Amino acid sequence: MSAQALLAPQEVWFDAPERWMSDAVHLVVIGAGGNGSEVADCLASFHHALVSLGHPKGLQVTIIDDAVVREPNLVRQRFWPCDLGQYKAVALANRYNLMLGLDWTGLPCRFPSPETEMAIATADLVVTAVDLPSARRALAHYEGYFKPSCMWLDLGNGHRHGQAVFGALSPRHRERYPCVIDVSPELASLKDDPRKSCSAAESLGTQDCLINRAITTAGMGIVWELLRYGRTAKHCLSISLETGEQMAASFPPS
């Protein structure tokens, strides 16, 4: 082997814990809107697929969101007129519990709060699907208990573009597996935009109809690799509906 090959950076992989192959994998989804509701739908498919492939327990999912379903949510989110007025997290959990005989949990609470502490403490993977920088900062600097092995997938998007960042939740593992705060340090100072769309048409003016599904499908592909094959080298994904391009980046070389 040449000296050049010996000195070349080695590709970094994340290997899922072995128990993911035999125990129920607990995923916590923070946010049940455009991206979060798509995540929940993906996870329902993943659970059914894993059980069909012989996984003994599949997935256990907790969805956290204190918002209720409003009319503007019906065009870009996985909700229908029958869901209007219900808490988003509860409506999604109930839907898949009824469809698949599951025992998923919907917490109509804001993160972080005392009601969400147990969910984070038992999570194997946290998915943030929120449009508030403060929620990402709250998780990045979370002072409650969580498993040292817990990982973090963040999904975010604009009008016609989006990105997914997969990394570690624990600060001591972030040099090897950087999280979204490490990748996008500007999130440390960005202010929240609390404005809500007042109509379905206005909602489509701020985010295109398929952007949530597109970025969620890309990001959840990482989760499927972990659940099905036990490892991934994907760190960041970006997608543009305008150009049709999708790009992937690996973890920093070791």
From TrEMBL:
InterPro entries: PRTRC_ThiF, ThiF_NAD_FAD-bd, Ubiquitin-activating_enz. CDD domains: E1_enzyme_family. One of its GO terms (molecular function) is ubiquitin-like modifier activating enzyme activity. Residues 25-203 form the THIF-type NAD/FAD binding fold domain. It comes from the Bacteria. Keywords: Plasmid. SUPFAM superfamilies: Activating enzymes of the ubiquitin-like proteins. This is UBA/THIF-type NAD/FAD binding protein.
